[in-house]
């Protein structure tokens, strides 16, 4: 009976995960992150070559921080191309940080790394680094 219940609940989680919550992608590349419960959603996933792609990065602040900018890096064949988006906004401890970034996915086939680095204002200290890989 218990195992049947377990199967049902796992099934329910899977079903809700598939329908409601998009897949969370990537992993941390931070030594000391000041943002926790990080989730990155990329739509569409898998990416469609040469098409509009939206990344939504969210997390909650572990302490008061003024976020200065987010650096977005894309690596292809060992070459990084970086973009900087200015934020300059104060976030109190526990507040949710949401960063939405849209770009056209590449057309050249191969493997890529995409990295988001959240930087503190003034000091440029690394508050969060989050990365994922994809193939075209
Ligand atoms: C963090 O920010 C909140 C809201 O601005 C403030 O009330 C609190 O004193 C701050 N805490 C610290 C440790 O600076
Ligand atoms: C960010 O830093 C700059 C330069 O240090 C400062 O002028 C600006 O007021 C800061 N922004 C916030 C929101 O604190």
From TrEMBL:
Keywords: Signal. Residues 1-17 form the signal peptide. It comes from the Eukaryota. This is Secreted protein. It comes from Stentor coeruleus.
């Amino acid at each position: 009976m218990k195992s049947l219940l377990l199967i049902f609940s796992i099934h329910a989680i899977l079903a809700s995960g598939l329908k409601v919550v998009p897949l969370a992608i990537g992993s941390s590349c931070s030594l000391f992150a000041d943002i926790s419960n990080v989730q990155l959603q990329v739509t569409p996933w898998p990416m469609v070559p040469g098409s509009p792609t939206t990344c939504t990065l969210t997390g909650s602040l572990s302490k008061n921080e003024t976020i200065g900018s987010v650096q977005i890096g894309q690596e292809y064949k060992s070459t990084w191309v970086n973009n900087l988006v200015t934020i300059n906004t104060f976030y109190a401890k526990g507040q949710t940080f949401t960063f939405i970034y849209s770009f056209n996915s590449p057309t050249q086939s191969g493997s890529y790394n995409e990295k988001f680095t959240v930087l503190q204002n003034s000091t440029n200290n690394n508050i969060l680094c989050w990365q994922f890989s994809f193939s075209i």
